[in-house]
## 1
Amino acid sequence: MFAIGDKIVYPMHGAGIIESIEEKEILGERKQYYVMKMPIGDMKVMIPICNASCIGIREIINKKDADAVFDSLEGESYEQNSNWNKRYRENMNKIRSGNVFEVAEVVKSLILRERSKGLSTGERKMLNSAKQILISELVLAKNMSPVDVEDLINTRIST
């Protein structure tokens, strides 16, 4: 169980800080919730405590792992599937995993694809979403501003 002030990651949404733990009645059921404040967009998310482990809630990475994520953005990207539908599903599975290295891989491959061939509307939305998830965790892990993290991501990804 996490406590107020803990920095956690909610897969598919990003990282944030537990601001409070509240009991709420929703649809006739009383449950306890983590109230997580996101560093980007000033958004709050309520996460049912009883579901936290099955939805993949985890602590954010440490500074050393954050440096490794930035390092992973450098160099060549592996060749992705040319079938748009398969590529989209593979990337979505990586984002859903909650693994920050896999999310970084999706961001890197989509940015490189955008630079070389352009992206469809669906992939552009996926890139924006994956980028926000990645940035939110790196902001908390490195104690940097979202703008600085995004600049660092863009400079690390080579063409």
## 2
Amino acid sequence: MIDLAEDTQSNRLLRLGAQPIALTAAALLLLIAGVTSIAIWRAYTGAAPETDRVVASRQLQARTAQASEQLVEKTKGLEATQQESIDQLQVVQDQLQSMKRLLAAQQADTKRLSEQVANLNESIDGLRQSFASARSTESDTPSVTPRKPARHRVHASARKRSRG
């Protein structure tokens, strides 16, 4: 009896295998039923994975665009700050050059004035030496004082007597 049950089952499979059109039609009906049920499920729930992906993609693009705009704004701000720094540095460099020129001019003036003071000191020393040598020459020679004429002396002595 067991043999008969197995034979009956294998006979059915053989019969189905003998009719490939029926087997193909059954597979096609199952496939159509599955696709139809998926389509009905998507239409009923309103959720389609492709739509979700498109929405997610658009949101990602929007975030990327926003981040890109922020980067552009920050870059422009940095460029402006950098240009201001460059301008300030140029002003400081110009001021430094001016200060260097003024310092060089002052140093040249100081040197010129120092030379003039040295020349004046030499001139003063020369004048002192010539004055000192002139005095020593005068003290070496006897001084000749002109004598007053005699009549002035007499008159002067007479005046002393009359007062005294």
## 3
Amino acid sequence: MLWLACVPVQSTHAVVRRTEWSGVTIHGHKIVYAVRGRGPTLLLLHGGGDSGEHSFERQFDEFSEHHRILAPDQVGQGRTPDVPGALSYTAMMEDTAALLQHLRLRHVDVVGFSDGGVLALMLAVRHPELVRRVVISGVNIAPDGLNPEDLEELRASQTPNPKTIDEKLTHLWLTSPTTTELSLALLRQIVQPVLVISGDRDDITLEHTLKIFRALPDAELCVLPDTDHGTFSGRPGWLNPIISAFLDRV
């Protein structure tokens, strides 16, 4: 199904809920996560170099009206300290799975933006018992899914021994996801419903997004007009009702 959002929908927030922060040791290092609201758990996975609270700052209030939001910050990002070594999608995904297991959560809805969407798809492949439905936006399953000009810019800025989080992210984006982490064949194994979102001017090429959509056995596609990579921050009036309807569907 193709959903093309063209008419803004305004929403109101009658109740402002407080975000609570917690930390837990996962795989020998600390993971900090935000919690807000009550109801079925909604796992929000942030974009690279960002935080859960910031990536979804225009979703927290609305989604927490009917969900218990769980938004972890990945290593070296947001409030979670960095760890030695390179960043890895596999390691971040396993940290996220371990956090859900620590909190005794299963069958949760997962919304992932950019890098968070990569993690959401990997969770659905490797830990299907943890995931009920998936929403992704601005996701690639290989570096060549990025726009060519963005790839060239990343290559020009890479360093031989990445140490800072920005340098580590550049290395991650130029080398991952690997074919063992995500591929069209792995996407075909995902049985959960997936809503695939893209801006029509996204950092990920539309052709790459369509490959992801077509490989998923149970997927819907939402292309937002006149929209760049920042779908959640730039188009909440369009996107929030679409996501809510997808998650609430029986």
